Amino acid sequence: MTQTTMNDAGTVLIEAREIEKRYPNGVLGLKCASLSVRAGEVVVIVGPSGSGKSTLLRTFNGLESITGGEIVVDGHVLHQRSADLRALRQRVGMVFQQFNLFPHLTVLENLCLAPVKVLKLSAAQADERARALLAKVGLSNKSDCYPAQLSGGQQQRVAIARALAMQPAVILFDEPTSALDPEMVGEVLEVMKQLAIEGMTMCVVTHEMGFARAVADRVIFMDAGEILCEDAPDAFFGAPKHERLQSFLRQVL
After folding, report:
1. Which of 7, 10, 12, 222 sees the fewest Cβ atoms within 10 Å?
2. 60-87 burial, b for 16+ CB within 10 Å, e for fewer?
3. Short-list 249, 100, 69, CA closest to 172
4. Which of 45, 83, 44 minimizes the C-alpha distance to 65?
């Protein structure tokens, strides 16, 4: 459903090739997982709990190590000793389940910190960017609040604005609504839908099937550490080909 792109359309921003994640106890968390994400694309990853969705997502910015395969993100090969993860994470935004805002900083300070410290923006430039992003997520009146003074949905919208403040090439969303009360889920999904319309490249792990159906360019299904199938939303939900996906959809829809 992407209408415009923030990057060159069609450029592969994330390329995961036969990724393996083996834990010290020998258990395989990821088995030969391959996935590409192109600029301007919204890729949604779904599957049962424990299927490896979040593990796969977290390998894309080096938060999770791999024991096999290769990942190239925005032209940089991850998991090499020479990889500059700090530089990479400037280009790969991350929105977590639990918001991860600094509790001792105001909303505005949370947004300004990294642009000043990492991107070397002036305080005035960072302030201007932060206020514009707060307006974008509908929280202009919360700039001087602390995270504890906000609802869960408001905190997650701040977290999205904070990720956008770094002007990333792609944003990874790790179950961004799973920690929210049901009535707060919609306000976060609406912000994400608007980002998709504007062409933000996003890779989203979620249990929100309505969001996947409405917003995704492709939906990926994982189970037991493997990518079992992927398809456009209409075919994924309307005519699922894989037997395990059919069983999953019967349970969640």
Report:
1. 10
2. bbbbbebebbebebbebebbeeeeeeee
3. 100
4. 83
Element (H, E) at 156: helix 152-165
CA angle 71, 206, 22 (to 5 degrees): 40
Q: Nearest-CA neighbor of 13 among 124, 65, 91?
A: 91
Q: Is the pLDDT of residue 6 over 50?
A: no
**pLDDT tens string 189-233:** 999 999 999 999 999 999 999 999 999 999 999 999 999 999 999
* Cβ neighbourhood burial of 97 (10 Å; 0-12, 13-18, 19+): middle
Query: How far from chain centre, in Å, is Cα 150?
Result: 22
pTM reported for the whole predicted model: 0.92
Nearest to 97 by CA among 41, 159, 46, 150: 159
